[in-house]
Amino acid sequence: MPDDASTAGLRAQGWSMLGREDRGAALGGAEYREKACEPLPESPAGLDAIADHIAKRAADHRIVIINESHIVTRTRELARMLLPRLRAIGFTVLSAEAFSSSKDSLAPKAEYFENGWPHYQLGYYSREPAFGRLVRDALTLDYRLATHEQWHDPNASPEADVNLSIANREEAQARNLMTVLDGMGSDERLLVHVGYSHARETAITRDDGTKTEWMAARLKNYTGLDPLTITQTQCRKASGAARLAQTRSRIEGAFDIVVDHPVDTFEQGRAAWRTQRGDLLVPIPATLRPVSAPLVIEAFSEGGPQDAVPMDRVFAEPGEDIALSLPPGRYYVRAVRLDEY
């Protein structure tokens, strides 16, 4: 019996964290299926051209908000590519909902990114290797890290009204970003990394007439600043290079830029976009290949700490033809039993 959408999504998210998006795609979830959109006339083609286009548009904005899929890791690559382009025009702070928050500070704990290595405990989604590479590049470029996520009180009772819970979270995120902005110089600019609808500049109206106003809309209203908003989760073309798409009618005005990525394909169990962006498929060392039970294989850059986010991570079962996906370099590789992971 097929999984329902929410269960399949959670399982796909788990496979994504383990480097096995191929297994997430096999569940049949929507984020690995085509969702046709009309291309933007004269759209740039390919991630490099799209990143250049976004950076040019960003020159007129103090805030850029880019969303991601929490399942499809290729959406983190475009954010990574934007980092140097935006840094060159005055963007100095990267705030991500993925980073752990605390009641008293919107800056992640310094020990979680000391010496340019994103620590495993920096956040949840940032534990995934493509996200870890994004953070590593941000630190190399001297971005300051911030978090705007709502602080979760472990002693608080769960909110019974789902819509109220969403509204409270969106409000907290917007207010936190206002605090981040208040702590920045007047000439500094802010890059905000979010998931899905948090980047939406317009409210969603439900059938019963109730509305949800998302973080980007609240931030825009409160500050009077018009953010440049980019969505990567609305369109999926069948194949070919990434492009920009026309806004779908139901999200008219919600986002400034709609990125249309191709549906993912896989090679040796790994997302093909990684090798297209320069990774090499590297066989798992013979001594670390699983024999009697599955293993999680992790590769760390030589000289880096072993509590950092690895450069790659992949789940492998005995007999599978699975490879590590790595940029050229030297690495320390380890295998971890799944029950210890």
Provide a concise account of the structure shown:
Helix content is 27%, strand content 22%.
Can you tell me about this structure?
The chain is built from eight helices and 16 strands. The protein has about 350 residues and is α/β, with parallel strands linked by helices. The protein has three domains: about 35 residues, no CATH class; about 230 residues, 3-Layer(aba) Sandwich (Rossmann fold), CATH 3.40.50; about 60 residues, no CATH class. A seven-stranded mixed sheet has the order 3-2-4-1-7-9-8, with helices on both faces. A three-stranded antiparallel sheet has the order 14-13-16, with no helix packed on it. Strand 2, helix 5 and strand 3 form a beta-alpha-beta unit. The longest helix has 21 residues. The mean pLDDT is about 95.
DSSP strand count: 16
- Number of helices, counting only DSSP H or I runs of 4 residues or more: 8
Helix-strand string: HHHEHEHEHEEEHEEEEEHEEEEE
CATH class of the largest domain: Alpha Beta
> What is the makeup of the main sheet?
7 strands, mixed
What would you call the shape?
Answer: globular
**Portion in helices:** 25-40%
Number of domains: 3
| C-alpha Rg (nearest Å) | 20 Å
Strand order of the largest sheet: 3-2-4-1-7-9-8
CATH arch. level architecture of the largest domain: 3-Layer(aba) Sandwich
Defining traits:
341 residues, alpha/beta, Rossmann fold, 7-stranded mixed β-sheet, Haem-binding uptake Tiki superfamily ChaN domain-containing protein
